[in-house]
Design brief:
Elements (H helix, E strand, L loop, with lengths): L36 H16 L6 H31 L12 H32 L2 E3 L7 H15 L6 E2 L14 E8 L6 E5 L7 E3 L15 E5 H7 L9 E12 L12 H12 L4 E7 L4 H11 L6 E4 L30 H5 L4 H7 L2 E5 L5 H12 L3 E8 L7 H11 L3 E6 L7 H13 L3 E3 L6 E2 L2 E9 L2 E9 L11 E8 L2 H16 L10 E3 L3 H17 L5 E6 L5 H13 L2 E6 L16 E6 L4 E2 L2 E5 L11 E5 L5 H5 L1 E7 L3 H17 L4 E4 L5 E3 L11 H7 L9 H4 L11
Parallel strand pairs: 1-6, 8-9, 11-12, 12-13, 14-25, 17-22, 19-20, 20-21
Antiparallel strand pairs: 2-4, 3-4, 3-7, 5-6, 7-8, 10-17, 11-15, 15-16, 16-17, 18-25, 19-23, 21-26, 23-24, 24-25, 26-27
Length: 737
């Protein structure tokens, strides 16, 4: 790669001493007590990429991790880097909590992002021969047989040629608009008296990799196929004469555009849906934040592209490898299960089976906690479908933040409305990159007679809530679902999340208050069980941390266990530092961003941070307070939540914090889930005081333990019903710290 920089032209160099491996004397008010949010995210994505080089994983799962890391990086530039570039261009020099200006952050992002992209290409080069050894090949046209070339030409003329639009460049043909994530081939030609420069946008509706027809004739029906792909751009280049029959190609290249997708919404908008529809059109035309040009593109074409797109040279990356690595996920065929993780079928809770599959009956008997993806998301779908068709159910209220294109949740709400029930759907339009899908669902729900509201203009509604009101005798009863994850049946197969089902009257009243708050601006005066952001969630966390501090000062056991996606919020981090200094033992499982600096003497020596990256994406949010007893403890205060510890979640979103009081579920969360996460030594990383993440090495004295394998083979406590007493789960113990 000739140039890996990705900064704004106005970025400033940062002068910061190299951090030693162990830090001493970090002042409580020094910005050095925080890691930078953006750089911590890049560290997370590097951990994801590291799994692509993890030889314990099947080869196509390694490819999947590479594709995920590339997709993550694209979105990082589209949103986070775009925001920083916008600040620099606007002359904003506000300093982040770790003491860096936007320009200085961009300078540090440059080096890390360049190294990350180089490593992605290196990983791609390492995976290709390993895939070929396993009979999954990515080929060039000259490697194909005559029979395959004949088939490919027919495929090109039938399915690709009709959607290609070559574009000339001359006074009558201006430089074409290239949409966000657009991939373009470019050429210099001779023999065309009109325009020597040609551009060919590669249509995004055509698969990036064309699979060649297989031949199983010599191996029998049971044999696994040879899988052979050729990239779409190689197909186009091989049959370019069909597009330019009378010219000679003298130079060719390729480039890819990433545009600013971090758009703002007008707080004064009278019609929020219309405003979002306008925003989605504007997103396609955002400023170019990064231009990736293939290394082999001649200088004359490079200069032309950069000039026409008005890109500063520092925002250009030259790629020696494959453009658009995120699309390599297309190379994972369904008919080669031997190269994937062993198949896993989610369990359906035995307790609900014992009630004949009747969710409402099972929930009315006892609270249930469903642990996704180990337990089937179908439980949530069945809960709402049953409510939709139950003649005694009179009302359903539902939040929708992210859901799928063919959503059974939305279908159940539509069915309920058509059955005459009072149905309210709180659709969050501000769910980034899902806005279009949510607008579409909102329209469909409105047509069915659902009361559709969009929450607050200035807050996102991120809480995951279902509320079902059922007439039972002379009274009504509330059935609630409170989750840590989205109502999305596909991501629920790979995201670890928790779903609490309860008929607790106090929780039901609190959930009703939350809906009234969001739909009618009726701010509650108090809550009985739940806590929500932005009203009192932060305060509840602070109060519980302060209680642990008092326990420690009194010489009693004091500890905090927490699991989440990100820890960014400065005041909350400072409170954890205060707790550490008082002697509170703190263990954090943070999948992604962590701005807290652990293990610093005098500041955070009692805080340990780990991250788990593996087969499933850790997404559940849990926090446990020892409450004066050693962890894990039956006496601990245990909560599940929709909120990460970030300013946006605590200050600018509607989020829920749900106490777990049922004994079985309490034990499931703290003794099973949290202990298993802390015990994992197969896919865990530790954060050092200097900011370096190191993979946990298995000590000779310790047995291997994989948290995902454990939950795939050990049913949860609250879903086991009568079987719980017959087959006790494997006991987990924590090693002393």
């Amino acid at each position: 790669m000739e140039d890996g920089t990705v900064s704004s032209p106005a970025s400033d160099p940062v002068e910061r001493p190299t951090e030693p491996s162990v830090l001493h004397g970090v002042a409580p008010d020094s910005p050095d007590r925080f890691f930078n949010r953006e750089l911590s995210w890049l560290d997370f994505n590097l951990r994801v990429l590291d799994e692509a080089q993890n030889e314990r994983h099947p080869i196509l799962e390694r490819l999947r991790f590479l594709a995920i890391s590339a997709s993550n990086l694209d979105e990082f530039f589209m949103v986070r880097v775009a925001g920083l570039v916008g600040q620099v261009r606007a002359g904003i020099s506000a300093v982040s909590q770790d003491g860096l200006t936007p320009g200085q952050q961009l300078s540090e992002i440059n080096a890390r992002a360049a190294a990350l992209m180089d490593r992605q290409q290196q990983c791609w080069g390492e995976l290709l021969p390993l895939m070929a050894e396993n009979r999954v090949e990515v080929l060039r046209a000259e490697q194909l047989t005559e029979e395959e070339l004949t088939w490919l030409e027919d495929e090109f003329l039938t399915n690709i040629f009709p959607v290609l639009t070559p574009l000339a460049l001359d006074p009558a043909h201006p430089f074409p608009f290239i949409p966000n994530l657009g991939f373009v081939l470019c050429f210099s030609v001779e023999g065309d008296g009109h325009a020597p420069m040609k551009f060919l946008p590669v249509p995004n509706m055509v698969r990036r990799f064309i699979r060649l027809p297989g031949d199983l004739s010599d191996r029998g029906e049971a044999a696994l196929p040879n899988v052979r792909f050729i990239p779409l751009e190689r197909v186009i280049l091989h049959f370019l004469h069909h597009l330019f029959p009378d010219v000679r190609i003298t130079a060719r290249g390729a480039f890819r555009v990433i545009r600013d997708s971090d758009v703002e919404i007008d707080d004064e908008a009278e019609d929020l849906v219309q405003q979002f529809e306008t925003m989605l059109r504007r997103r396609r035309r955002g400023e170019v934040i990064r231009l990736k040009i293939h290394q082999d593109t001649p200088f004359v074409l490079r200069d032309l592209i950069i000039s026409k797109l008005h890109v500063h040279p520092q925002d250009v990356v030259y790629v020696d490898g494959l453009l658009g690595l995120a699309q390599t996920a297309e190379l994972i065929p369904k008919d080669r299960p031997d190269l994937l993780f062993p198949s896993f079928e989610a369990r359906f809770p035995e307790r609900i089976r014992e009630h004949g599959g009747d969710c409402l009956s099972a929930i009315s008997a006892k609270d249930i906690l469903v642990h996704h993806p180990y337990e089937d998301f179908e439980v949530v779908v069945r809960f709402l479908k049953q409510a939709a068709n139950d003649p005694d159910v009179i009302a359903i209220k539902q939040t929708l933040y992210r859901t799928s294109k063919q959503s059974p949740i939305v279908e159940a709400l539509i069915e309920a409305a058509e059955n005459g029930k009072n149905v309210t759907a709180l659709v969050e339009l501000k769910a980034r990159f899902d806005e279009e899908a949510n607008i579409r669902w909102a329209r469909a729900l409105e047509r069915a007679g659902v009361n559709v509201v969009y929450g607050f203009v200035d807050y996102k509604t991120h809480a995951k809530l279902s509320y079902v009101v059922r007439r039972e005798g002379e009274n009504t009863r509330s059935y609630c679902h409170l989750g840590t994850g989205n109502y999305h049946q596909f991501t629920a197969k790979i995201y670890t999340d928790l779903s609490l089902f309860t008929t607790d009257p106090a929780i039901g009243r609190d959930v009703s208050r939350i809906f009234n708050y969001v739909t009618g601006y009726a701010q509650p005066q108090s809550f009985e069980r739940l806590r929500i952001a932005p009203i009192n969630l932060r305060e509840t966390l602070i109060e519980n941390i302060e209680r642990e501090i008092e326990f420690a000062k009194a010489g009693q056991p004091a500890s905090i266990w927490a699991k989440m996606n990100s820890v960014v919020d400065g005041p909350l981090i400072d409170k954890l530092y205060e707790a550490s200094q008082a002697g509170v033992q703190i263990d954090l499982v943070v999948r992604g961003i962590c701005c807290l600096r652990p293990g610093v003497p005098g500041l955070s020596e009692n805080i340990r941070v780990k991250s788990i990256i593996g087969r499933f994406l850790e997404h559940s949010r849990i926090v446990c307070f020892g409450n004066g007893r050693p962890m894990p403890s039956d006496n601990a205060l245990v909560y599940i939540s929709s909120a990460d510890w970030m300013p946006r979640n605590l200050n600018r979103r509607v989020e829920s914090l749900v106490p777990i009081t049922n004994e079985t579920i309490h034990n499931q969360v703290i003794d099973q889930i949290m202990v298993a996460n802390l015990k994992d030594n197969q896919q865990s990383w530790r954060l050092r005081p200097d900011g370096i993440w190191t993979r946990v090495e298995l000590p000779d004295t310790e047995d291997p333990f994989n948290v995902h394998d454990y939950f795939m083979t050990n049913p949860s406590l609250s879903g086991r019903g009568a079987a719980l007493t017959e087959r006790s789960p494997r006991t987990l113990t924590m090693a002393p710290r």
